Task: inverse folding
């Protein structure tokens, strides 16, 4: 509050959105779609996209406004952790407990600590599930607030500089109990976190994340000039994977980015989310949909 005018003073920078305006999906291959359904749909309580990739060769799974893409093939493991927000940790824990016997012999595991559950998918992907928390994740009630990616020790400043100068995005360096990291904001309340760790030396197996850029051509030009473009997909999509030191060219972290423009036909496509607590044995009409944002509140 401004003491002289008695009017509120706002930090307008909190409302800025950088050049990356959408975290669309995380893509990892899975060898067995049946096991993927048991884990992602029955266990986590997410929703298979009813409109696209409904066959046996690929599966898209909705989580708020983001997705997992799960094409069938040799298993891929993201070098890091995918963060999720799921509304009811108790209900999710009960679902995971129910599917556990059918996932015996896989890498599936979970361990809960308060409002956070560390989950391992049947093929070894790490997923960290949080309860909704407005202070940490904004008004997200169901979604994918971050993807945490392994990066080389001492790389955080270089990664932030890469995104600021090449991608035209914001970025900050931080440190917590797990160590140092670079945070790159995306859209309303999502981000990519590059966590410094010796695990970054594990070979990259080709998994990817999908993001959308407001300025689509500017970063493309800079990436192309440095020889970092890996695929010219079509007029509204391209790919790159190496995050490099701008002075030396040293690779600081690798994760493929499927970059889309805001003119891409699927940009901000509305996604169907179900309420997994509304079952045939426990049904209430009108409660079929899952809410990906918190209820209305004063701003």
Result:
């Amino acid at each position: 509050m401004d003491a002289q005018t008695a009017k509120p003073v706002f930090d307008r920078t909190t409302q800025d959105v950088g050049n990356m305006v959408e975290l669309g999906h995380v893509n990892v291959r899975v060898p067995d779609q049946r096991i993927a359904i048991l884990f992602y749909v029955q266990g986590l309580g997410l929703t298979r996209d009813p409109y696209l990739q409904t066959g046996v060769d690929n599966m898209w799974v909705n989580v708020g406004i983001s997705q997992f893409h799960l094409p069938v093939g040799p298993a891929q493991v993201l070098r890091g952790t995918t963060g999720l927000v799921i509304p009811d940790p108790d209900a999710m824990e009960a679902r995971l407990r129910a599917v556990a016997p059918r996932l015996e012999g896989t890498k599936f595991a979970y361990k809960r600590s308060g409002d956070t559950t560390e989950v391992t998918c049947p093929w070894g992907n790490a997923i960290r599930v949080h309860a909704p928390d407005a202070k940490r994740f904004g008004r997200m009630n169901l979604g994918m607030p971050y993807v945490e990616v392994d990066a080389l020790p001492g790389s955080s400043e270089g990664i932030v500089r890469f995104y600021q100068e090449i991608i035209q995005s914001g970025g900050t360096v931080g440190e917590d109990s797990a160590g140092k990291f670079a945070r790159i904001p995306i859209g309303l309340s999502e981000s990519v976190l590059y966590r410094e760790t010796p695990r970054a030396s594990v070979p990259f197996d080709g998994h990817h994340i999908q993001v959308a850029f407001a300025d689509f051509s500017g970063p493309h030009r800079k990436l192309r000039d440095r020889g970092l473009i890996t695929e010219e997909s079509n007029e509204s999509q391209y790919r790159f994977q190496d995050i490099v030191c701008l002075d030396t060219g040293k690779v600081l972290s690798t994760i493929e980015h499927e970059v889309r423009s805001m003119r891409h036909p699927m940009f901000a496509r509305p996604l169907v989310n179900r309420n997994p607590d509304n079952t045939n044995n426990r049904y209430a009409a009108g409660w079929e949909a899952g809410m990906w944002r918190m209820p209305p509140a004063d701003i």
